[in-house]
Specification:
The complex is a heterodimer of chains A (273) and B (261). Chain A has 273 residues and is an alpha/beta fold. Chain A contains eleven helices and ten strands. Chain A is globular, with a radius of gyration of 20 Å. The termini of chain A are far apart. In chain B, helix 7 runs antiparallel to helix 8 and helix 8 packs antiparallel against helix 10. The longest helix of chain B has 29 residues. Classes of the chains: A alpha/beta (273), B mainly alpha (261).
């Protein structure tokens, strides 16, 4: 469990990125942290694995204060996958890249081999086992970066902007993968601008703006609130926009999922005919 | 990365900032020549203290001090090397002239750092490029130079992101013996270099698509103009140079010796 208590944080440059933020994330939860550029999303998740320590307030991971632990100790439980895969790939083969974290955390060779194989299969990378990560496409590099973190099976996985630069079919695969990860009992935290992607996932949404949490609740409630969405420089999901216009026909406004939309329209058509 | 702070341009407005970069360069060069000309403690001390009002005028004392602080290690090394060599060549005696000579060599180095720090702190990379260009330097070189200076903060920022990413994968930079620690930096250096190369290729393409090098002679949006203040500073600088040459040739400089214990 991650518990953030009245945390404020100011960068050395003087930017006040978090202002008295409090939030609790339980084990096995699926959370999307959203907000405009510079809202403090990345600064907040960097507190979770100790890359940044709070200026004021405290962050607890499973009851342990992050001030007392190193990034390495925390990362074993809280895996953070950065937005730009090019900021972390450096090995000669994909296999080595995935094993890097495992070796840092001191897993035995036998476990290493097993985990590398597991992670390669998980992200559909088996054929690139011996390929240099630098030869892969952008989407594949991103998958390698993800595999290299998932390999040590952190209980919490944080994905920073996972959908940026991914084509639609990659996004689809990512969506399935993230859901699967969550149903297996992992805590998954997404940091993203991609409203449509979040609408499909239907997680708990934490909305941030100017270093504060402005809303926290189920996606269905938050993503269909035009005032909140506008405040954070986002736009309503397309499905929701459609149902806002259909409201005069008696449709509800809080619809974000395509399946729910289909059901509602089916009902409507059946009643009419 | 901190070591570069003292050389990074600080965007404020002051008398020194507004001087023509070429005049400032001449000023720095004159300080350089003077520092080489004199080996005695007294003139070098004067040379260093003459720069203090300039720092004050430019409002860059904080950055200037930090660049002096980062030159401290090198200064100490220069001092020690001179003392050791002097000690050995004067039949293993720590004479007062050895100490004096070592001190003035160190002071000479600090003076040079101080003057070039003022130059870089008060001259924007753009002005510098313009100055190079208008001094008939080939544009390609001027451009390469300004680009290099401008990308230092970008690189520093990127290095921090890479460090964060690798730490999140369990990398501990401070772990292990000396050799291990050097190897710990590989996961940071490789992505940094690969990204820098990638960026330079992208930059080249972007420049070419904006017609870089299409014409032999390019025109500039801004042109540097010598103003009254620039002429004044230049005259004073050259007068000091002439005066110092006169002193060097015809006046005996009083020797200040550092006593031995």
């Amino acid at each position: 469990m991650i518990k953030v208590e009245n945390v404020s944080f100011t960068y050395p440059s003087g930017v006040n990125a978090l202002k008295n933020v409090s939030i609790e994330i339980s084990n096995g939860e699926f959370v999307a942290i959203m907000g405009e550029n510079g809202a403090g999303k990345t600064t907040l998740v960097k507190q979770f694995n100790g890359l940044l320590k709070p200026g004021e307030g405290d962050v607890y991971v499973d009851g342990r204060n992050t001030r007392d632990l190193s990034v390495a100790e925390l990362s074993k439980d809280v895996g953070l996958v950065f937005q730009n895969a090019d900021h972390q790939l450096f090995c000669e083969t994909v296999e080595d890249e995935i094993a890097f974290g495992l070796r840092n955390f001191g897993f035995s060779n036998r476990v290493n081999k097993k985990r590398v194989k597991w992670a390669l299969t998980l992200l559909n990378l088996q054929e690139y086992r011996k390929t240099s990560p630098f030869m892969l496409s952008g989407g594949e590099r991103k998958r390698v970066a993800l595999a290299s973190v998932l390999a040590w099976k952190p209980r919490v996985t944080i994905l920073d902007e996972p959908t940026v630069g991914q084509d639609q079919s990659q996004k689809e695969r990512l969506l399935q993968f993230v859901r699967q990860l969550n149903t297996q009992g992992n805590t998954v935290i997404l940091v993203t601008h991609d409203l449509e992607f979040v609408a499909e996932c239907d997680p708990r949404v934490v909305l941030m703006s100017h270093g504060r949490i402005v809303a926290d609740g189920p996606a269905k409630k938050i993503l269909t609130n035009p005032k909140l969405i506008k405040k954070t420089s986002l736009i309503l999901p397309q499905i929701t926009q459609l149902f806002f216009r259909l409201a005069d026909l008696g449709f509800p406004k809080d619809v974000i999922s395509i399946y729910e939309a289909k059901e509602l329209i089916n009902d409507f058509v059946a009643r009419r005919s | 990365m901190k070591a570069f702070e003292g050389l990074r341009f600080k965007r404020t407005s002051s008398f020194i900032h507004q001087l023509d970069p070429r005049v400032k360069f001449v000023l720095s060069c004159v300080v350089f020549i003077l520092a080489i000309m004199f080996t005695e403690l007294l003139p070098l001390t004067i040379l260093l203290s003459v720069q203090l009002p300039l720092v004050y005028l430019a409002h860059v004392h904080k950055e200037w001090l930090s660049s002096l602080r980062s030159s401290l290690i090198l200064a100490t090394m220069i001092f020690l090397t001179n003392v050791i060599v002097g000690y050995m060549s004067s039949e293993f005696q720590l004479t007062s002239s050895v100490l004096t000579y070592s001190s003035s060599m160190t002071l000479r180095f600090v003076t040079l750092v101080a003057s070039f720090s003022i130059f870089f702190l008060t001259t924007s990379p753009d002005d510098l490029g313009l100055a190079l260009e208008q001094s008939h330097f080939p544009y390609e070189f001027a451009f390469a130079f300004t680009t290099a200076v401008r990308f230092v903060p970008v690189l520093a920022n990127e290095a921090q992101m890479i460090i964060d990413a690798q730490k999140s994968r369990g990398l501990e930079l401070e772990k292990g013996n000396f050799l291990k620690r050097i190897r710990n930096y590989l996961p940071i250096l490789i992505p940094l270099i690969v990204n820098a190369i990638r960026r330079s290729l992208e930059l080249a393409e972007a420049m070419e698509s904006r017609a870089f090098g299409a014409k032999e002679h390019r025109t500039n949006l801004f042109a540097l103009k010598i103003k009254m203040n620039d002429v004044l500073v230049l005259i004073v600088t050259l007068a000091i140079l002439a005066f110092s040459i006169y002193i060097r040739l015809y006046v005996k400089i009083p020797i200040v010796e550092i006593p031995t214990f």
